[in-house]
Amino acid sequence: MASLHPHNGTTNTDSKPKPKPEPITESEIRSEFSHHDPTIARINNGSFGCCPATIIAAQNRHQLLFLRQPDHFYFNTLKPSILRTRRLIQTLINADHLDEVSIVDNATTAAAIVLQNITWSFFTSIFNPGDAALILHYAYGAVKKSVQAYITRAGGHVIEVHLPFPVRSSSDIVFEFQKALHMGKANGRKIRLAVIDHITSMPCVIIPVKELVRMCRDEGVDRIFIDGAHAIGNIDIDVKDIGADFYTSNLHKWLFCPPSAAFLYCKMSDELSNLHHPVVSHEYGNGLAMESAWIGTRDYSAQLVLPEVMEFVERFDGGIEGIMKRNHEKVVEMAEMLVEAWVTELGAPPEMCASLAMVGLPVCLGIKSDGDALRLRKHLRECFKVEVPIYYRAPVEGEVGSIITGYARISHQVYNVVEDYYRFRDAVNKLVKDGFTCALLTK
Amino acid sequence: MDSEDPRSNGDGINHVSKKPKLSSFITESEIREEFSHHSPDVARINNGSFGSCPASIIAAQKGWQLRFLRQPDDFFFNNLQSQILHSRTLIKDLINADHVDEVSIVDNATTAAAIVLQHVGWAFAEGRFHKGDAVVMLHCAFQAVKKSIEAYVTRAGGHVITVHLPFPVSSNEEIVAEFRKGLASAKANGKKVRLAIIDHITSMPCVVIPARELVKICREEGVERVFVDAAHAIGSVHVDVKEIGADFYVSNLHKWFFCPPSVAFLYCRKTPISPDLHHPVVSHEYGNGLAIESAWIGTRDYSSQLVIPQVLEFINRFEGGIEGIRKRNHDAVVEMAQMLAKAWGTNLGSPPEMCPSMAMIGLPSKLGVFCDDDALKLRTHLRDRFGVEVPIHYQVPRDGEIGSTDGDGCVTGYARISYQVYNTLDDYIRLRNAITQLLHDGVTCQMLQRE
């Protein structure tokens, strides 16, 4: 990932390099996140992210600027502020052109933009009924619905690629994907779009997107969209290196922005002018980035605080790279501590984990459905004050023996402490000791 | 709104207080404080564009934002949906809708337009509408809505018919007559009119449209569906969606209803053949009805949608509640408009009964507003040089018409002034004096620099 450090020769908007700030202390970090519920062991940064107090304050300043004199803000301030954010993203993700970077609410919105464009292609007969879109079976639920709403409804065929979980290595993923791609193309079917997660949500695994993109290109897939919702601030992103046509990631998950803001990268092409934000306003036809920067009166403040966020991350040793590295090491360490305590397994090897890890839960807990997983999550929240999402992994035909059917997706972000994970460890140990099963929760 | 009288005997009967509780109404000083975050240097007479939000509501919103940030999972699973439902229920009562299912909360009228028009786009794509089928809109429809029509109707092969309404205008009858004419000529060309989009209060120039009558005409003329864009309506005119009788009705709550940016409701009348509308940002709730879909469109800040209970409390601190606020705003803006028209030797663009909490006042012809660019330059100049925030409208003279004149020529520029609870007489005096000063200095729009 391109770095913001001046010594890399990257363009810096300041003329003088700023003196490196004092590294943030543990006590300052606690202060930054003192608005978090102190009674909760918060190990689900993946779902909704987090936002430090400094950034909330910055956001409030932007909000008040608008409320103070909205016309002035609209005519003179808003556009340049969004432009600043786009430039920062361009650098962070190594995009060639600024026009390639649009700011939207979230990855869900980005998906709607990309997919609605596909609908038009079907409608105008550029694509034909039966042409296919390829998605992962583990694609995020909202994205699957969007594919249904925009592709299935328009006459497209949807291919779901089943990937193994637990998974032992990236090559397992590559192998399965290759198989599915070939099968998808059987009978001369044209694959118009591939939607590939960079980090799947549930179960959470880093996908070798660069290889998969290359495979898709080799097999003549028209367009490739990477859903990197979790990626930025979690792993390196180099959109040129990955080579996809579209790439989205949420800034509020792992990059400390308030809810909510995301970028949608669209590689420069003739098609780019056909992409539109579905909420059409004055800027329609002026390019997706311009369209997205004004979709009617609303609060754009979450999109404006990225400069302050970059200052915030620079207070940490190694900046965002340092944060990512330490989060990853910590979450792996905690995950291994948990599997040792519970005598279970990780769902994926450490190199396929970012700042999240899938930790097998003891089989005796009897997680036998999605409903069980959700109820167990609620039980952990209410009775043990642990916030952690639970994944139900259905047994696959032909599997023998005692199979782990439940995994916890733990996360590590700068505000976490080791006690959060001890509390989770002890909660599960207690449940096991008490002979708890999920069946008890449905009574 | 009835409130439990604490002096009651606890007999469970709701005693409606008959005495006006004068001492408990909000004071001038409290109002000033509620809007103390507004720039004190600006005569803020453009409430129409971006609305306004009192400090109490900003604080309430912050409370909701922090609740989410504190424990987002708990908020998502246990609070958000019930709070949005509560907001929807309050809105349903405000607008006299039959079912809460008919009320969806979205970001703004622009989003609502996208929802309705995307549906039209699908109808063309799926063969329910045929190439050349028409959508009718007003010539002065909001620019964003026009673009949305281009994006979803024209692009899909639909035909767009524009109805010109007169301005300046002197009565509802003029509007009705023009609309009837416009609709008739659409039908004369054999076009099937699938949708009519009618403003309840046009934005520029700003006029209250007799929406109920126009909806009736649409029904008589066989227009399939009617969408009323009432972006400005709630909090500035009486809103009764059943009375108006449209299929779709949208209004922004952040313009005249004191909500923070941004929140709007989209009302969709329930009938046996209600069309299947979807939010364009598709998420987990796809297929569960527009209201439920709109209540979750991915992780974002929904706090502006949750403060409606607090807003109703705020409004009821004013005598007469929202009706009282509306009436006083209207009376004040008309009074200010007449003061300005008199000072400048011009006229109002519409009679008082067709003004909501905004009024269009002719600008002296000597200022030379001859195009949209001139209007924008003048607006910028008023902001930068005089600290007056007011939108300026350029009225294209219609073929063969002279339109309005003052002593010196054709009046082609209008200022759209607004009046909201935070405004004072001084705001309008500043505008009056600014224009007088420009005239005195012989300034015309041509002389003003482009930004």
UniProtKB/TrEMBL annotation, chain A:
It holds the Pfam family Aminotran_5. It comes from the Eukaryota. Residues 1-26 are annotated as: Disordered. InterPro entries: Aminotrans_V_dom, PyrdxlP-dep_Trfase, PyrdxlP-dep_Trfase_major. Residues 15-26 have a biased composition (Basic and acidic residues). Transmembrane segments: none annotated. Keywords: Pyridoxal phosphate. The keyword Endoplasmic reticulum does not apply. Residues 84-340 form the Aminotransferase class V domain. This is Aminotransferase class V domain-containing protein. It comes from Penstemon davidsonii.
Automatic annotation (TrEMBL), chain B:
Residues 82-274 form the Aminotransferase class V domain. Pfam families: Aminotran_5. It comes from the Eukaryota. The keyword Calcium does not apply. The keyword Ribosomal protein does not apply. Keywords: Pyridoxal phosphate. This is Aminotransferase class V domain-containing protein.
